[in-house]
Amino acid sequence: MDDLRVAPGPGAPRGLTVPAAEFVEKFSRSSGPGGQHVNTADSRVQLSLDLGTTSALDDDQRARVLRNLAPRLSGTVLTVSAEEHRSQRRNREAARRRLAELLREAVAPPVPRRPTRPTRGSRRRRLEAKRQRSEVKTNRRRPDHD
């Protein structure tokens, strides 16, 4: 198995390279597509990477990835599985693609929020809607006894 290359993006302008030795692969029987002999081959792939010790990330990237992927982690280990193909080789490729995409998205810094102001038209429409609603409620009242 080769090193995993993650495409360049925000947070990793030159991309990432995860050494193959840092992956743990497990194979098991898949519940996915197949024919008569589908349950005889271990085609499901689970690919794990310890984000706390990987040499592919610097300290800032590691902190960002651990924060962004926290719900998916078991400790600091990220596990991705693939079982959509009948072939173990294709499932290995799918798991590696999935892991690379997760890392690429998680290493990106958060986009700062730029505060915006309501437009004149949206303020006018909001006030007009409030006036109409007020008119509806006023018309529901009992008439005055003058």
Major sheet: arrangement of strands: 3-4-6-5
Strand content: 15-25%
Largest sheet: 4 strands, antiparallel
* Poorly predicted ranges: none
Helix and strand pattern: EEEEHEEHH
Give Rg in angstroms: 27 Å
Which geometry do the CA atoms define? elongated
Q: Count of DSSP helices?
A: 3
Calculate the terminal CA-CA distance, rounded to whole Å: 91 Å
Structural class call reads alpha+beta
Mean pLDDT: 86
- Overall strand count: 6
- Quaternary organisation of the protein chains: single chain
Which percent range fits the helix content?
25-40%
What does this structure look like?
- The protein is α+β, with helices and mostly antiparallel strands.
- The chain is 34% helix and 18% strand.
- It has 3 helices and 6 strands.
- It has helices at residues 59-68, 88-106, 120-140, and strands spanning 4-6, 16-18, 23-28, 44-50, 73-74, 77-82.
- Strands 3-4-6-5 form a 4-stranded antiparallel β-sheet.
- β5 (73-74) and β6 form a beta hairpin.
- The radius of gyration is 27 Å and the shape is elongated.
Features:
alpha+beta, 6 strands, single chain, 146 residues, two-stranded antiparallel sheet, 34% helix, elongated
